[in-house]
Every structure is written in C-alpha cells, then in structure tokens.
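Summary for the funding panel

The consortium committed to producing paired sequence-structure records for every protein in the target list. Below we show the first two records in order, beginning with the earlier of the two.
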Amino acid sequence: MKGQQQTGMALEMKKVLITGGAGFIGSHLADELLAHGYQVRVLDSLDPQVHGEQRRRPEYLAKEVELIVGDVNDRSKVDQAVKGVDAVYHFAAAVGVGQSMYEVAHYTRVNNLGTAVVLEALTQNPVQRLIVASSMSLYGEGLYKSESGVPRTVGERTLEQLKASRWEFTGEDGNVLQPMPTPETKQPALASVYALSKFDQERLCLMIGRAYNIPTVALRFFNAYGPRQALSNPYTGVLAIFAARLLNNNPPAIFEDGLQQRDFVSVHDLARACRLALETPEAAGEVFNIGSGQPLTVREVAAKLAKVVGKEAVRPEILGKYRVGDIRHCYADISKAQRVLGFTPQVRMDDGLAELSSWLASQAAVDRVAQASAELSARGLTV
C-alpha cells in the first residue's frame, strides 16, 4: 500500500482510531489515512448541533470507516473503540469560543473529562502513538512586534479600550504594534473556557503519554476551512458561519472593524499534517502549529467567500462590537512543522474557496447566527 511503502511507521501502525472522526476535520483525516493504506475506526457521538437531530451516519464518511456511535465520557464505548488499534487521534471536542463562555459545564465535561476518560482507557490499552487536536485559541493574542521589529507579547485589551473601539494594541510610544507569526514557544494566554479546555487536553495527553510511554503529539490547529463544515452550527469556524449567512442572503456579521487577522488553512492540508504527525518518529513529545502561515483579515475572507459563491451584493455587516474571549490578531509560525514533519501547505486560498463554493452549491443551511448572537448579548458577552 502507498503509505506502507513510504514509511516503516505505517507498516507497524495499521489500524487507527479517530475520536470525533465523523466531523469536519476527522472525516477528512479518515480519507487521508484510508488513501495511505490504514484501517480506520471512528468513535463519535453524532452531536445534534453538528450532525442534526436525526444523528445519522454522515453520507460523506467513507464506507470503509468502522463507526462506533458513543460519547467519549462513556468508558465502555471508549474501551470498545481503543481495543485492537495501533494509534489514536483524539479529536472529540465541543467547539466554539462564544458558546463555551456560557455552557461551561458542557465544554468541561466533553473536552476535559472526556480526554481523561480516553487517557485512562489508553493506560490499559497502550498504543504506539497518540495525536491530540489542540487549538490556536490557547495562545490568546498572537505575537507582536514594535516598529523597530522587537517581538512583543501583550495581555488582554481593557474594557475601556474596547468600548472606545480602540481595537489595536499600542506600545509605550503610542504606535500600533504589528502582528508577527506566532511560534509554539509563546506562552499560553487562555481567554475563553474553550481555550482553557484545549490547553487541558493538550497537557493531559502529553503528560500521560510521557508517564505511560505512549508517544504523543499535540497539533495546534488554526482556522480550518473546506467542505463538510457544519453550516447550521453558529459556533463553528468563521467561514462556515459566513457561508450559512450568505446562502440565506444574509450579510456576514463581523465583530470589531473586520481588520483582525487570522490564519486560514485548508482541511486537506490539515489532514495531511495529521498523517505526517503519525508517521514521523521525531514528532513524539512535540507540539506543532498547523496553519497556512499567511494572515488574512476577516473582512478579506468575507469578501473572497462572497465572490466565489456569487453573493458579492450581500455586503458584510461590520458590528463594531467586541465578543468576550475574542482576540485581535494571531497567525501561525509553521517553521517547526516544516522542519520536523516536512509539512508545507499546498492548497492556495483561492483554490480552497473554489472547492468550498462547489460544495456549498448543493448545501442548505439553517442560519442560527442571530440566535447565537442574542444568547451572547443576553449574558453580557458582547460589548
């Protein structure tokens, strides 16, 4: 098989479990692994917020995938899932910064406790590699630099500053600090319950992996986009949220002034990085940023998406509001992933959006953004 010819690691690791593998990223990873000769098992609760109330097996999930429907907090299901596998990708998580700030118990149960249950099962059924999906959200603000190029770390913006719509960070001289690529060495600054839970997942996996001699890799995903995103989930990735608005002829709602910078990475590149983390012996015990390494403003991304879906007339709504837990700028320094994993993004943004547009043409989406915004506003989580 192709993958087995490429690396001795693949020869040893033939059967792989992906928790949360029926979702957007997990299903693309399943395709990537199948294409390289692996057998794939998935454990997924088929959460209605992502998969709809019917909780059916997604049509896009490859037929070769063995699906176990169950929750990561159900130890019996987890034991069933890890039995006989050589490696585990732990992707199961409740996702979304805003929602995490009021569904605190739910996010903590799924993300923190669910990870603990998976890890306890692995202490009884050790595997040759554990890979955990972490998140760029744990950085809080990205790394900045002064006008003279000196790197700077920043804290959180003050409420007074945000109410005055002073969105940017400034140095002691009053000049605006410029964002720069954020490396894995930047200290976490946990600005949301979601960020805290992802950091907890990452640290728990690396800690238990080290203690029980399970080679473990943490991948800090930046903003993934592509087909199969849950369009009716108002707490998913920003591109899916914008797509749901545009498909319903509603304007994308953009917080602050829309000039905040993010790193958007194709799900195909991300899936390939995940496979490389499995097959690269030197990755064990390490943490990697997985992104494009290229910053784009949220306004730019909204405009690009509107153009490819033929909705340029639907102008975005710039809210001029701040959402608790949001950060201003963050994009990835991917030099470590390039050096150790041999990872280089291959999908250009325009090509990735064209593929997304083709997929969107056959999709229907329930626009729940207004409902989600009302939830945040009612709790005082927008300013």
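The next record, for a separate protein in the list, is shown here:
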Amino acid sequence: MVSIVLVSLYLLVLLFGSFRKKSSDQDADADSYLLAGRKLALFPFVATMVTTAYGWIMGIGQLYYEYGISAWLFLSLPYTSFALIMAFFFSKKIREEKIHSIPELLAKYYGTKVSKFGAVLVLLLISPAMYALMTSQLLAEVYPLPTWICLILALLFSSAYIYRGGFQSIARKDSYKFLFMFGGFATTLIYLFQAHGLTPLEGVSPQKLSFSFSGHLWEIITWFILASVVITDPGYHQRIYSSESPAVAKRGLLVSVLCWTLFDFLAASIALYGLGLLPNLENPALVYPLLAHELLPPFLGAIFILGLLATIMSTLDSFLFLSAQTLMLDLFGKTQETGKNMRIGLLLISLLTFALLVPYLESNAVEFFFDFTPYMVCVLVPPIISVFLPRYRLQGNEVLIQMSLAVLVCYAWTLLPEPETFGLNAVVPGILIVVAYQLLTLLLKKRKQGIEN
C-alpha cells in the first residue's frame, strides 16, 4: 500500500509538470526546445547524463544476479571505457559542430541519403521500447493491473511533462531523479547490511564473488564491441550539444564516470544480496522489485521502487524525446515550428512504441537489447568515428553501401542455426566485415591514386 501511495505521488508530480506554463521561448528556435539553449551547466549535465545512461537497470540486476560481480567486466567496464574515450577524444569536436542530431552530422559529411538511412537506424537505437517495457513491468509489480495498462501509464507519465517543456524539462527533472536513484539504492544497501550483515553472501557461489575471465572471454569481447554504441548514442550527443562549453562536456563525462562507478557498486551489491536471500528466481530480471516487496520494510521498499522508477524513466523520457526529434525533424524534415512538430512526434512515437512492445510484454530487457543493438553498432559506429578521423572517411555512396552491408550481415547471422554461429553475437562478424570493407575501400582508392600519379 505504501508503494502504491508513494509511486502514485511521484507519477502525479511528473504529470503536474506538464501543466506548468511553458516558457515564452520554448518554440522560438530549435536550440531552445531541443538543447535547452546550449546552456547546460555541470551539475544538470552530470545528473541527466548519469540517469539517462543507466536506464537499463532491470537488465543490469538480472546480469549481476546471473553472473555475479564478473558482470562488471562486460556491463560497466566497456561502457565507462567508451565514455572516457568520448570525454578525451570526441566531446570537444562534437560540441564544436554546433548541430542538433546525429543524422544532421551524417548529412553534413556524407549527404542526405546516408542521413536518412542513419535516421532510421537511430530510431531503432533510441527506441524507448526497452525502457517502456521495464517501466511497465515495474508498475505491474506495484499496481494490480495488466502489463499492457501499465505500459500505457508508463508512456503517458513519461511524455506528459516534456510535451511542452522540451529538453529543459528533461534536464530539470533528471536532477531530482538523480537524487532518487542514488538515495533509493544507497539506503537499501545500508539497510540490507545492517539487517543481514554479510551472511547472505556466504551462500553465494564463490565464482560469483570474484572477477573471472574464465569462460567469459568472448562475452567480454562482445560487450566491448557492443559498448562502442556509446559513440553513436544520441543521448550522449544531445547532452554534449547542450553543454555550456566543450570544457563542461568533458568534465561532465568524467564526473559521470565516477558516478556510474559508485552506482555500479550499489547495484551489484544489492543484486548479490538478492541472490543470497532470494535464490533460484524464475525471472532474475525482477530481483530488485521482488527484493523491495519481500525483504524491505514497506516505506524503504517504496523508496527503492522510486529509485528504480527514476532510473528507468529518466531514460524513457529522454528516448521518447530523441525519437520524436529523429522522426519529425531528421526523417520527415519538419524543421519549422519545432515545438509543434515535436509534440506530434511524441504522440506518434508513443503509439509506435506501444505497438512494438505488444509481442515483448513477457520478455526481458536483455533479450530486447541483444535483438537490436548489433545493428546500431555495425551501421553507425564506423561512419561516425570517421567523421572525426578524415583520413579514414569514406564518400557518401561508399558509406551507404557499408551501412547496407552491415544490416545484411547482422540479419543473415541471426538466421543461421546456433551451432554455425559458434555462440557469437551478430555484432562480432558484423563489425569485422564492415571495418574490413572500409579499410579495403580506402586501400583500393589509395592504390588507384598511386597508379594515376
């Protein structure tokens, strides 16, 4: 009952934000609505970066439950590594582009066709579906409602307050969600330690309490390749575009890495307590909400649920917003009346997300992640990196071929019988082939130029 009351109050506060009087400049220009006027200071940058990038919390709980702390080697280490690469090598260049989106970046360097192709793939990459799924499953643990109704509620309460306020509303709310996120997890871990000490961990397999590469090497390599999606993540790009300066973007990413590392410790520790206290769960993706309901006092359990909701919904609202932007502005070219077209886009994306998720309502976030991410990595990572490495940049028509090849290879790999894939995720052959194509194309062009000279 306490969870129902507190979660309802939390959702109503989000909904109340949608009725606030909108600022007079929200529809004035794209920078104001899409990028908060490019005036994001360090704390809001860190708050919105940290909360948005950690939205996959139910899947994270599942993997820590299944693999133990070794999951850090493929869950967190690859992503924080690429975040550091973004901070030191790309953030300044991205901020200085003074554009609004990744498709706009592709259009600038490769042309309209590549931009449109990229926009379609970006739509898949930033699909809010996985986060809407997790939010609906979490709400279904709180309310005695069917999952499909909880899905409608998740989409409604996540899109309502950004309907008018744009990215400024997202950044403002993420500052509060940042506090809910860390507060909920920190207080839960403190309670579990005080109530149970380290006794529950004594029943956990020693292999799950130590870092081990044994048996996980290809999984770790695969996750490092998948983590390169950070370079193409529109959420990272949007926040870098929105920062006050390149220096704020770089410092913000570095502070975000520290925050993620701390939160990794909280998330992993609580999942291990869940493993010790709730062994043999039929659905490990629900380890956090089940722990909240069965092992925590009602009020603390409700606070923990709010922390989970804040973590997931911060990504859900951001991806709803980015999806609407990609659909309406980048794909359909509706660049006039930004606010009006974005509101239409939010409605369309919400309807599409609901339709897409109907077959996945009983699935988990891990399955959803592995279905879509390989395409994004293989299609978008090479051309976006090449934007900032002119020596390795292809021409527009060559990039179009490369992107098409990536889609075909990834899709063909999923059709193979499992023994013929050697247990490899589609991202491995996909990235190897598209990188080989790029290097071979550059080599042939260089050789041709040498012959002509």
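Regarding this second record: The two ends are 79 Å apart (CA to CA). The chain has 23 helices and no strands.
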